[in-house]
Amino acid sequence: MKKHNFSAGPCILPQEVFKQASEAVIDFNGLGLSLIEISHRDKNFIEVMDQAQSLALELLGLENKGYKALFLQGGASTQFLAVAYNLLNKKSAYLNTGTWASKAIKEARLFGELVEVASSKDQNFNYIPKGFSVPSDVDYLHITTNNTIFGTQIKEDYNFEVPLVADMSSDIFSCQRDFSKYDLIYAGAQKNMGPAGTTLVVIKEGILGKVDRTIPSMLDYKIHIDKESMFNTPPVFAVYVSMLTLQWLKNLGGIQAIEKINQEKADLLYDEIDRNPLFKGFAATEDRSNMNATFNLVDESVKDLFDGIWKDADINGLNGHRSVGGYRASMYNALPLNSVEVLVQAMQAIEKRA
Ligand SMILES: *Cc1c(COP(=O)(O)O)cnc(C)c1O
């Protein structure tokens, strides 16, 4: 029986995608061969890569707008340095909203001057800084739209006069944004799109070619664009499953449709956190993430009782990250509304028993 999976990443994907992917591992397109034993230069796989790239651009509304989509390896963590390698010539600006943003900052400092335009570290990253300004002479501003660990989310699309780079690992394809305001978007697949092993990078081509340094081939976006994500062997399985998930999303009605469902799930859970006297939310109310809800018990002495109740309800992956404690419910695109209903019932069950 399928569990209610609130895991933060790797995470739940649509059940039908798991089924299609498992079939392709045995026999792909009726070829009598597995997806993972054919050449990545075989036309059957090239079609997968083309599809995955065009679906990504289509769902983001970025077709024919000068953008390219790449599926690279090395996780979002490699993008922390690839972004700086390709774009940071003299000076960059970073918004520090959590662990992942801090890690991106650490890497970029290796390449040039860095201005931290604002930080919410003073309150353990439980809010998104507001009203900050960005120097006009920076090469780009880097933000993390959704802070997976702390459960905060940037809900607006910033309008600064400098190129905008965003780590969207944990909320890409979950809510509508004006993606054309972003010059570079990257996202590890394993939070909302596919298995670990590939990272989607969406780049406005015009921002490249402006740094003085020589870039190693594997980190050079221009090379990956010229080779259409086939400079070296791509992670074929991860790209294939990502393609299936993007197709699933398109069939559902795209980002507009999934955003409504995600809002419904988030409202259901946050309403219970606010109503139930046994729980308190971690993130500032206006900055709460619709993907990762962080919350704690008011009285830790009932922890074992609550943990027993949700585990008995076939819920998986609810423990919070060690830097926040408590609980984190990740409600990615593929998580059914019913799973959130089951969690809310568990929260109401402990209220009756505690
Ligand atoms: C998980 C995560 C990362 C790290 O991704 P890897 O693929 O493990 O390198 C980076 N940024 C955000 C926002 C994340 O949620």
From TrEMBL:
CC cofactor note: Binds 1 pyridoxal phosphate per subunit.
Pathway in which this enzyme or protein is active: Amino-acid biosynthesis; L-serine biosynthesis; L-serine from 3-phospho-D-glycerate: step 2/3; Cofactor biosynthesis; pyridoxine 5'-phosphate biosynthesis; pyridoxine 5'-phosphate from D-erythrose 4-phosphate: step 3/5
Reactions accelerated catalytically: 4-(phosphooxy)-L-threonine + 2-oxoglutarate = (R)-3-hydroxy-2-oxo-4-phosphooxybutanoate + L-glutamate; O-phospho-L-serine + 2-oxoglutarate = 3-phosphooxypyruvate + L-glutamate
Chief localisation class: cytoplasm
GO MF annotation: an example: O-phospho-L-serine:2-oxoglutarate aminotransferase activity
Cofactor or coenzyme needed: pyridoxal 5'-phosphate
Keywords: Amino-acid biosynthesis, Aminotransferase, Cytoplasm, Pyridoxal phosphate, Pyridoxine biosynthesis, Serine biosynthesis, Transferase
UniProt binding sites for L-glutamate: 41
Keyword S-adenosyl-L-methionine listed: no
Record keyword Transferase present: yes
Residue ranges of every copy of the Aminotransferase class V domain listed in the record: 5-342
Positions with a binding annotation for pyridoxal 5'-phosphate: 76-77, 100, 148, 167, 190, 232-233
Entry-linked InterPro entries: Aminotrans_V_dom, Aminotrans_V_PyrdxlP_BS, Pser_aminoTfrase, PyrdxlP-dep_Trfase, PyrdxlP-dep_Trfase_major, PyrdxlP-dep_Trfase_small
PROSITE patterns cross-referenced by the UniProt entry: AA_TRANSFER_CLASS_5 (PS00595)
Compartment(s) where it occurs, according to its Swiss-Prot or TrEMBL record: Cytoplasm
Modified residues (N6-(pyridoxal phosphate)lysine): 191
Record function comment: Catalyzes the reversible conversion of 3-phosphohydroxypyruvate to phosphoserine and of 3-hydroxy-2-oxo-4-phosphonooxybutanoate to phosphohydroxythreonine.
Entries under HAMAP family matching the protein: SerC_aminotrans_5 (MF_00160)
Family membership: Belongs to the class-V pyridoxal-phosphate-dependent aminotransferase family. SerC subfamily.
Oligomer and partners: Homodimer.
NCBIfam families, alphabetized: PRK05355.1 (NF003764)
Name of the protein: Phosphoserine aminotransferase
Organism of origin: Zhouia spongiae
Lineage summary: Bacteria, Pseudomonadati, Bacteroidota, Flavobacteriia, Flavobacteriales
Gene symbol of the encoding locus: serC
